[in-house]
Structures are given as structure tokens and as C-alpha cells.
Amino acid sequence: MRNLLRLCPLLLAAALLFGAGPAFAGKRVALVLANSAYQHAPSLANPVSDGSVMAKTLKEAGFDVVESRHDLSALDTRRVLRDFADATRDADIAVVYYAGHGIEVEGSNYLIPVDAKLERDTDVYDEALSLDRVLVAVEPAKQLRLVILDACRDNPFGKTMKRTIATRGIGRGLAQVEPTSPNTLIAYSAKAGFTAQDGDGANSPFTVALSKHLTTPGLDVRRAFGFVRDDVLKSTGNKQEPFVYGSLGGEDVPLVPVKAVAAAPTAPVANPQADIRRDYELSLQVGNRAAWEAFLAQHPDGFYANLAKLQLEKIGAEQAHAAATEKAKQAEAERDRLAALGAQKEAQAKAAADANAAEQAQFAAQKAKEQAQQQAAAAEQQRVNLAAAAPNTAPASTASPTGTNVASLTPAATPADLTRSVQTELGRVGCFSGQADGNWNTSSQRSLSQFNRYAGTKLDVKVASTDALGTVKAKQSRVCPLVCEHGFKADGDKCTKIVCREGYAVNDDNECEKQRAAKPAKPATAKRDDGDERPARQRRQAGGAAGGYGAAAGIAAAAGAGRRSGGGQVFCNSGGCRPVNRGCHLEYRGGGGPGNDANAEVCY
Question: How far, CA to CA in Å, does 59 sit from each of 55, 100, 215?
């Protein structure tokens, strides 16, 4: 009972963090459409691969229904949308993702099936799928209707499409759209009127960013698309900017809510330092000001209290830096505004002075923030080292009523050592596959981002911090799922080859699919040899020549005589027919008719 009362402030702080979020979402359904193999336009390399990535991402996020289809005709697409609309009737969240060709005609957007020809501009009304048809499919969802279009490519029919009316507008990319239904968002891979890039890899930059951020537990869908935008701008050199149309209310709407974990009752622990350490680590995982203040209210003195104070100072320095940065931006904007308006020199001079002062304050806040972060990191590293050496003990000085002097906490490791430790721990939980070289590069940041995604944490991925080290180290088993190549599946900590039974093969979704029966081969057609064909022609010509002169009886008699003489060939001309002399043979010379023998008797 004493321990339960002691932990109440910390549990309350945790409730402030986790309890403020939305309730766990109800039924979630998704439809993934991807078109690559166009029949009357150039094929696209990435859409089917992009669709597979998004289907896998949504399945791993716990969606109740994830229907994935690719390379559909117009008729099949309409049927799939009709069936998906039935699945959304009792759903809270409905998501449609489409990768492929899209086109804008007269301000309306259309998705292009693989069998569309679009020989003239009006064909789009018959052979393509209107974006409004997709919105109808997600309309029954109660909480969120989300349509994602990775289709902002050049019109593949633009050069050949005939214009039935010269003034009919066919735009570049997709047109801007404003959803009329509430709680509806439409996300484009590129802003309206612009085209998107397929990227150099197997997936487009937009889909890569979506799979990274969209299903982060507890992350509002609007913030997730903000992170997607930042990633795509960075990876494309600011050439492609994703855009989201529509609006939601004031409550956060995450695609993957954070699941509340009930605190399990703990047995009494005799060692008080172990209790304090566990309370400290709980506050470290929560990581906000309320948690640290609750910890200090319960443990005002000692080694861990001094560490908590450093964490509070770091949070305060970060907040002060954020406020100074915002103030500097406002002062700079005011200076530029007055300069653009041509205000009086005194007003411009004052604005310039204010902007300079705000910039200096921002610089000082940055320095204070970095110093506070370094002190907190050094102290946390010392704590980690002490915990590893003696898990249930603390320095002897913690028994002193005055506690440990904060100034005595000197760095126990260099930044490179801290980075290597974080990389090593990320590798242990399956989120990092590189070498622990102490270089916090893009690969390391991506690994920590993956950890955040699957562990439900919000660690800063830009730096290797002691917060990250402590949080990752607290995980006792694999966190990030094992990712295997196509044709292989995860089996524990290894990738094993997928073996399908006879008649089945691995499809694009890495599942065994029944193969279609092969068409029977056509029987080989016998061909006559030229050597066999020529004598036949000769025989036909010989017969034709004889028949041309009405000597059928002569041919038969001569043939009989030839067989008696042993020659076997018959020579016919206007004088009649006779067996070919011994030692001679007939050669076909062409022609035939009166006065022109088709065959000649050649003797050796």
C-alpha cells in the first residue's frame, strides 16, 4: 500500500501524457490500388511496389481490413470500389491509397485504369474513374475519410489525345480539390498543378515517407503528413511538395492510437534505491515536465533528484530556445514588412534593432540549450554506467541528506561513445543493421525513427541522446520487425525462403497464389524439304504439260513402258510421251505450253 501511494504522483503524470490522447479507434479499413502495366500507355516502374509497401504498412498497423489490388481494368476497379464501400459502412476510419496515372480535365480529377485508351478528351468520362467515385466509397466512415493519391504524373496521353473542343482544359498533374464531406482529407504526392517524381529506388519518395510516418502510434494524421512533406522536400531537393486538402476538428486523429497499458501490481522491494531508480526510469520514458516535477515531489534529494533537475533544466532551455526562435522570426518579419512598405527610417531602424536583439537572444538561448543538453547527457551516461555496474545500488553520496552536487557529475563518455552505444542497442532490438561506428548519420536516424514507430516513443532522432540510450536499453527483446526480401519470410530472427505447394507460386504480396494453367502448345507443322518438293513440282508440271496437249493415254502408256525399262520418269512434248532413256533424268525448266517444254531430258 505504501509503494502504491508513493507511485501515485508518477502514475498521474503518465496519465496526463497518455490520457490526453483520443480513445482507441474502432474498425479501420483500407483499400490499396496500384496500376503499373498500362496497355495503351508506357508502363510505370514503381506503383505496384509502392502498393505492396503501403499494404504491408497498414496491415502491420492493425487495420481490420486491408484490400490490395493492382493493374485493374475500369470495370474491375468499379467493382472493387463498390465492395469496399460495403466494408466502410460500420468503419470508423477508411483509407484509400492509389498509385498510378491520374489526369485533370476541366478542373476534375480522374484515375486511369490500365485498359484506358483516351484517344479523345471526352473518353475520360467513360474509361477513367472520377475522384468523386472514390470519395463515395469512403463516405460511410464515421471518424476519418482519407484518400491518398500518388498519381501526380505527366498525362501519358497528352501528345496523342484529340481535343473535341479547343477550349477544354487538360491540366498538368492534378487539380486542387476541396472535399464537401466533413472529416475528409485528400493527400496529393505533389501540390495541385505540379508533377511528382518516381525516385531512383524501388519506391517513390512520397510512399517511402508515408510508410515511415503515417502509422506512428498516437501521431495525429495531419502532423504525420507534415513530416511526410518535410521528408519529400528534403529527398527531392525541394522540387516536390506533397499537399493535403480538407480539414478536421480540434481533436487529434491518429491512424494508430496508443494503446493504454495498465500498470501491473509490483511486489514490495526491500532496496529503496531500486524503487527510486525505477521511478526515475518511468519519468524518463514519459519525458515531460509534469513527470519530472512529480518525481522530485516524491524524491527531492539524492543522486536521482539531481539528475531529474538536470532534465528539467534541459526541458526549460529547449522551451526558451523555441520561444526565442519564434520571437526572432516575428521581429525579422516585422523588419521586412516595414522595409517593403517604405516606412519612416526611425521605424525601420527600431525594427532592425529589435530583430538584431531577438537574434542575439536566440543565439544565447541556443547556447544555453546545448549546454543543458550536454550536462543532462553526461549525467545520464554516468547513471547508465552505474546501473550497469550495480543495478540496485547508487553512489554512496546519495545517502547524504544534502544529496550529490550537480557540478560533480562530469562526462563519463564522449559523444562518439554515446552514439556507438545507441547504435549497438538499436542493433540488439533489430532496428539497426549497420556498424556501430559512432557516426550518427542518416541511416542511424532512420533506425531510431523505426524504433519510435514500433515502440510508440517520441525520441529525438536528430541526435544520439542518453534518453534514447536508456529507452532502447530498457527493451529486453526485438522491437523492429525483421524485413526480408521478396520470396522470403521472417522466421524468428532469420529470413527463410517461402516454399509453395505444387501449382502455387509467390505473388507480389509475398503470398502463395495458385498459378494459371499453361496453354497447350500448338502441334508442330511438318514441313516438306525443298529436295522433296522439287520432284513433286516436276511431276505436276510433267503431268500438266502432257495434259495440255491431250496426251493422257500416251502418258499412261509411256509410264508403263518406263516402269518396264526401269527408268521411272516420262518425258512429254508436242510429239507425245515416252520413257526417259536410261542414264538420263528430267530437269524442270519452268514455263510449259505449246512450243515450250517445261522439262528437259539431261543425259550423262
Answer: 6, 21, 10
On the CB side of 242, how many CA atoms lie within 13 Å of its CA?
32
Q: Residue 297: which of 3, 7, 4 has the closest Cα?
A: 7
Q: Band of the pLDDT at 169, cuts 50, 70, 90?
A: low
Can you read off the three cell numbers belonging to residue 603? Answer: 543425259
- The pairing of strands 184-188 and 243-247 is antiparallel
pLDDT per residue as tens digits for the range 68-113:
999 999 999 999 999 999 999 999 999 999 999 888 888 888 899 9
Question: Is 498 in contact with 512 (CB distance < 8 Å)?
Answer: yes
Query: Do residues 87 and 27 lie in contact, with contact meaning Cβ atoms separated by under 8 Å?
Result: no
Query: Which is higher by pLDDT, 572 or 523?
Result: 572
Using alpha carbons, select from 136, 175, 135 the residue that is nearest to residue 155: 175
CA quadruple 528, 533, 535, 537: dihedral positive or negative?
Answer: positive
Dihedral (CA of 574, 577, 581, 585) sign: positive
Sign of CA dihedral 291, 254, 19, 274: negative
Q: Around Cβ 141, how many Cβ atoms within 10 Å? A: 24
Q: Is 516 left (phi over 0), alpha (psi -120 to 50) or beta?
A: beta
Residue 500 CA to residue 156 CA, distance in Å, equals 38
CB neighbour list of residue 64: distance below 8 Å, 6 or more residues apart: 27, 28, 29, 91
Expressed in angstroms, the distance from the first to the final Cα of the chain is 127
pLDDT for residue 280 is more than 60: yes
**Which of 153-167, 375-389, 434-448: highest mean pLDDT?**
434-448
For residues 457 and 451, the answer to whether their CB atoms sit within 8 Å is: yes
Contacts of 172 (CB under 8 A, 6+ apart): 104, 154, 155, 193, 194, 195
Q: How many CB atoms lie within 10 A of CB 52?
A: 22
| Model-wide pTM > 0.70 | no
Cα separation, 510 vs 496, whole angstroms: 12
Cell 504525420 belongs to: 224
Q: How far apart are CA 70 and CA 55, in angstroms?
A: 11
> What are the b/e assignments for 3-41, b being 16+ CB within 10 Å?
eeeebebbeebbeebeeebeeebebbbbbbbbbbebeeb
Side-chain-facing half-sphere of 140: CA atoms under 13 Å: 15
Q: Which of 321, 357, 350, 351 is nearest to 334 (CA)?
A: 351
pLDDT in tens, 429-460: 888 888 888 888 988 998 999 899 999 898 88
Q: What are phi and psi of 60, to 5 degrees?
A: -65, -25
Burial 292-316 (b: 16+ CB within 10 A, else e): bebbbebbeebbbbbbbbbbbbbbe
Cβ atoms 118, 157 nearer than 8 A: yes
CA 109 – CA 236 distance, rounded (Å): 25
pLDDT of residue 298: 85
The C-alpha cell 493422257 sits at 552
Q: What are the residues whose beta carbons fall under 8 Å from the beta carbon of 46, sequence distance 6 or more?
A: 36, 99, 198, 199, 202, 203, 204, 207
Element (H, E) at 244: strand 243-247
Long-range contacts of 62-65 (CB under 8 A, 24+ apart): 62/28, 62/256, 63/28, 63/29, 63/30, 63/95, 64/27, 64/28, 64/29, 64/91, 65/27, 65/28, 65/29, 65/30, 65/91
Distance CA 397, CA 413 (A): 21
